[in-house]
Write a sequence for this structure.
C-alpha cells in the first residue's frame, strides 16, 4: 500500500516528477557520454596505432599514450633503427594537431605502404604531389570532402588526392616533408613505426632498441602500446570523470532535495493525516525515500536512453571529431551515483516531514 | 478505573507556550465515558474541545492529569507508543474529511488498514461499507466524491481497524443538512449496532441530540454533563 501511495504521489504531480527525473537523467547522460567519448577516443587511437601494421613503436617518453606534439626527435634516428637486427622496415611519422582532437600525420607514403600493407582507398589514390592530402572516410563524410577539391588545413591549401577507410594513422595523411616545412620541423619526427622480419622477436627487438636509443626514444611493442590506451592510464581524464561524477551527485541531490522539500511543504496536511492514522516518523521518511529512489531510477533509465540518443547524434553529425562508444558497464555505477544524490536529497525533507507536528499539520491550509 | 469505562480523564491540564505567554487550554477536566457510549462535546471556540480531542487521540501529551483509554494510561506512553495507540485503539473523523487526495476511497481505507498492520479487513466490514453506502464508490478519488460521501469514506477508514474509540471532530461541519443528518444517523447506527464508543465534538445542538449525552465545555473546563 505504501508503494501505491508513493506512485500515486509521483503521478499526482507528474510534470514535477518528470522534470526532476529528467534533470537526474541529464546528469546520468553526461556521465555516460563522457565515459563513452573517453573510451571512443582511446579505442580509436588504439585501433589506428594497431592498424599501421607495425610491431614496435618508438616515441619520445612523454608519459602520455596520445600525443599531438610534433617534431620532437631528429629524423636521423630512422635509418639508424632500420639498420638494427630483425628490423625490416622503419618509417618516421610526424604528428601535428589540426583541430580539437583531430591530428595530421606526415609520412613517407611508399615506405608506410610497405609496413601497413597499403591503405584501402574508397575514392582517389595515393598522393603524387607535395600538397596532396589523404582524408579518412569519417572526416570526409562529416565535412563533405571530395577527391579533387582543395581543402585548407594548417593555413595551407591541400589537394585532396584520396579518401581512405579509417583505422590507420591520423584522419589526415600528407607527405612528411611538406608537413615538416609547414610546421618548422624540418628533419624532425614524432615517432617511428617499425616492422620486424620476425614478429616473435618483438621483445628482443624492443630491448635492443631501448638500449640503442636510451634517453632519446622509447621502444614499445604494439601490443603493449594498445594496452596503454585505457582510462586508468590518464590521470587527467580520471580527474575529469570524478568532477562530472561529483557534479552528478550534487545536481541529483539538489533536484531531489528541491522536489522533495516542495512536496513536503505541499503535503503538510497529508503528513498530518498519515500521523493521525498511526504512521510513525520512520514510515514518513520511508515514503519520501521511496519517492526519491523512484525519481533516481526513472532518471537513470532516462539518462541511459538519452546517452544512446547523444551517441547517435554525435555519430551522425561528428563521427570524425568525436568517436563515442557505449558504456554499459557504467550503467550500474551511474545508477548508484544518481541514487546516492537522490537519497542525500531526500534526507532533510524526510526528517522535516517526520518531525512535523501532527496537530499543526492537520490545521495546515 | 472502572472496567466499564472506555475513557477516563481526571484533572486534565494542558498548557501551550505561545512565545512568552502560557495559554491554559485545559484547566482540570474530569470526564468518564462508558464502553459503547456516544457523547457529544459542545462549547464555544477556545473552550478546549479540540485540545481534549487531540489528547484523547494521542496526538498531544497532557501537561498534567490522568488519561486512560481502554485501560491504558496515556501518561506512561512515549511518542512511539502513542502512535501505536492511534493505529489500533482510536479512529479519527475530521471536519474536513482529511482523505488523501492521491488515493481512491478504497485505497484510503486500505492505507489506514496497512498502517494499523492489519492484513485483511475485519469480518463484517463489508456490512459497514453497505451501511455507509459507499461500497460502489470505492474506486473513486476524493475529488470525485460529494462531501457526504467523503465523510462516509472517512468514517469507514476510521473503523477499518476496529478501534476502541471513534473520535469525531465536527464531522458534519462541512456538510449540508441532508448529508449531516445522514452522517449523524450513521454514527448513531454504528454505535447501536457495533457498540462503537464515540466522542463527537460539535457546535451544533441538533447534532449533539444524536448522542446519548452531551457535555459542555468553557474556558478549559467541563461545565455540565
Amino acid at each position: 500500500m505504501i508503494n501505491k501511495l508513493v506512485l500515486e504521489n509521483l503521478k499526482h504531480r507528474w510534470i514535477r516528477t518528470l522534470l526532476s527525473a529528467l534533470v537526474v537523467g541529464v546528469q546520468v547522460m553526461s556521465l555516460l557520454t563522457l565515459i563513452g567519448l573517453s573510451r571512443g577516443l582511446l579505442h580509436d587511437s588504439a585501433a589506428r596505432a594497431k592498424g599501421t601494421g607495425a610491431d614496435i613503436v618508438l616515441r619520445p617518453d612523454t608519459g602520455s599514450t596520445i600525443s599531438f606534439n610534433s617534431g620532437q626527435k631528429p629524423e636521423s634516428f630512422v635509418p639508424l633503427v632500420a639498420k638494427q637486427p630483425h628490423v625490416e622496415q622503419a618509417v618516421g611519422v610526424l604528428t601535428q594537431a589540426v583541430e580539437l582532437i583531430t591530428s595530421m600525420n606526415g609520412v613517407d607514403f611508399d615506405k608506410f605502404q610497405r609496413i601497413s600493407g597499403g591503405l584501402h582507398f574508397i575514392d582517389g589514390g595515393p598522393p603524387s604531389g607535395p600538397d596532396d592530402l589523404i582524408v579518412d572516410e569519417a572526416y570526409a563524410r562529416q565535412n563533405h570532402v571530395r577527391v579533387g577539391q582543395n581543402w585548407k588545413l594548417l593555413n595551407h591549401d591541400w589537394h585532396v588526392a584520396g579518401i581512405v577507410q579509417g583505422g590507420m594513422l591520423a584522419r589526415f595523411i600528407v607527405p612528411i616533408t611538406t608537413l615538416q616545412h609547414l610546421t618548422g620541423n624540418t628533419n624532425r619526427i614524432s615517432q617511428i613505426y617499425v616492422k620486424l622480419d620476425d614478429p616473435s622477436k618483438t621483445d628482443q627487438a624492443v630491448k635492443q632498441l631501448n638500449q640503442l636509443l636510451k634517453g632519446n626514444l622509447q621502444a614499445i611493442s604494439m601490443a603493449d602500446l594498445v594496452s596503454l590506451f585505457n582510462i586508468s592510464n590518464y590521470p587527467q581524464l580520471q580527474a575529469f570523470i570524478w568532477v562530472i561524477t561529483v557534479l552528478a551527485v550534487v545536481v541529483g541531490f539538489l533536484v531531489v532535495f528541491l522536489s522533495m522539500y516542495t512536496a513536503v511543504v505541499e503535503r503538510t496536511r497529508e503528513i498530518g493525516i498519515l500521523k493521525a492514522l498511526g504512521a510513525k516518523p520512520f514510515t514518513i521518511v520511508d515514503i519520501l525515500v521511496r519517492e526519491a529512489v523512484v525519481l533516481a531510477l526513472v532518471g537513470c533509465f532516462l539518462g541511459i536512453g538519452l546517452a544512446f540518443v547523444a551517441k547517435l547524434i554525435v555519430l551522425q553529425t561528428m563521427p570524425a571529431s568525436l568517436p563515442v562508444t557505449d558504456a554499459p558497464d557504467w550503467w550500474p555505477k551511474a545508477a548508484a551515483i544518481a541514487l546516492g544524490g537522490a537519497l542525500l536529497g531526500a534526507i532533510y525533507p524526510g526528517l522535516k516531514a517526520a518531525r512535523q507536528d501532527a496537530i499543526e499539520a492537520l490545521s495546515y491550509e | 478505573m472502572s472496567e466499564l469505562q472506555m475513557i477516563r480523564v481526571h484533572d486534565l491540564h494542558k498548557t501551550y507556550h505561545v512565545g512568552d505567554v502560557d495559554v491554559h487550554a485545559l484547566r482540570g477536566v474530569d470526564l468518564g465515558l462508558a464502553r459503547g457510549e456516544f457523547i457529544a462535546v459542545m462549547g464555544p471556540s477556545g473552550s478546549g474541545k479540540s485540545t481534549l480531542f487531540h489528547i484523547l487521540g494521542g496526538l498531544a501529551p497532557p501537561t498534567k492529569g490522568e488519561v486512560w483509554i481502554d485501560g491504558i494510561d496515556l501518561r506512561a506512553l512515549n511518542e512511539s507508543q502513542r502512535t501505536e495507540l492511534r493505529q489500533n485503539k482510536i479512529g479519527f473523523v475530521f471536519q474536513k474529511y482529511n482523505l488523501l487526495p492521491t488515493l481512491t476511497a478504497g485505497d484510503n481505507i486500505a492505507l489506514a488498514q496497512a498502517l494499523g498492520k492489519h492484513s485483511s479487513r475485519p469480518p463484517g466490514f463489508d456490512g459497514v461499507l453497505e451501511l455507509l453506502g459507499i461500497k460502489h464508490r470505492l474506486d473513486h478519488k476524493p475529488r470525485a466524491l460529494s462531501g457526504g460521501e467523503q465523510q462516509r469514506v472517512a468514517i469507514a477508514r476510521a473503523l477499518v481497524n476496529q478501534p476502541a474509540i471513534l473520535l469525531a471532530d465536527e464531522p458534519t461541519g462541512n456538510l449540508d443538512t441532508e448529508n449531516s443528518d445522514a452522517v449523524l444517523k450513521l454514527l448513531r447506527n454504528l454505535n447501536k449496532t457495533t457498540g462503537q464508543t464515540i466522542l463527537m465534538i460539535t457546535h451544533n445542538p441538533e447534532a449533539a441530540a444524536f448522542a446519548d449525552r452531551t457535555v459542555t465545555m468553557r474556558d478549559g473546563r467541563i461545565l455540565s454533563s
Remarks:
- The mean pLDDT of chain B is 87.
- Residues 6 and 70 of chain B are 5 Å apart (CA to CA).
- The longest strand of chain B covers residues 5-18.
